[in-house]
Amino acid sequence: MTKQLSPGDPAPSFDAPSTSGANVSLKDCAGKRLVLYFYPKDNTPGCTLEARGFSKVYDRLLKANVVLLGVSRETIASHHKFIDKCSIPFPLLSDENSKICNDYGVLGEKNMFGYKYTGIQRTTFLIDEHGKISKIWRNVSVMGHADEVLKSLNM
Predict the structure, then answer these.
(1) Terminus-to-terminus CA distance in the chain, angstroms?
(2) Where are the alpha helices (DSSP H) in the chain?
(3) 104: CB partners within 8 A, 6+ apart
(4) What DSSP state is assigned to residue 95?
(5) Model confidence pLDDT, tens digit, residues 4-53
(6) For residues 108 and 44, what is the distance between their CA atoms, to the nearest angstrom?
(7) Which of 94, 117, 115, 109 is CA-nearest to residue 38?
(8) DSSP assignment, residue 155?
(9) What is the pLDDT of residues 48-103, one digit of tens each?
(10) Which of 2, 1, 18, 26 is nearest to 128 (CA)?
(11) How far is CA 136 from CA 54, 65, 75, 105, in A?
């Protein structure tokens, strides 16, 4: 079992396919703050609200030299449909093999209509310019979450 990450820990490295057309890695974000948010599934109500919340603040993040990446286990094709439907301006990473999710410890047991399965627990990591985790939001409530992240960035 993966150790649960805490603020102050080095962020696990990653390298994954992105909707930008190229793989994106933690190294690509060196020298910048990174908001890395994990969400369960494209085109679902909660995930759509969360993506739209981050879309509204994306320009402010860019101006502050903050990288924003969304991660789920969906395919790049699914991500592109989600981006097109919701006009998402930032890249989404595909973690089909669950490596990033496992490394960040965001997979857990979920229950839907009595059916238990392993899924992504909605989690956001704020990673500093040196690759250390500075803040973690677990079991995120999507309403107002993007604004909460901005406050933590002193924006």
Answers:
(1) 36
(2) 45-63, 76-86, 99-104, 145-152
(3) 5, 12, 36, 38, 123, 125
(4) -
(5) 899 999 999 999 999 999 999 999 999 999 999 999 999 887 898 999 99
(6) 18
(7) 94
(8) -
(9) 899 999 999 999 999 999 999 999 999 999 999 999 999 999 999 999 999 999 99
(10) 26
(11) 16, 20, 25, 11
Place of tokens 């649960």: 4
Residue 145: strand, helix, or coil: helix
What amino acid occupies position 53?
Answer: G
> Does the pLDDT at position 124 exceed 70?
yes
Catalytic residues: 47
The pTM of the whole model exceeds 0.90 = yes
Which whole-number Å values give the CA distances from 144 to 2, 13, 52, 96, 141, in the listed order? 29, 28, 11, 28, 8
The yes-or-no verdict on residue 119 having pLDDT over 80 is yes
Q: Are strands 92-94 and 107-112 parallel, antiparallel or unpaired?
A: unpaired
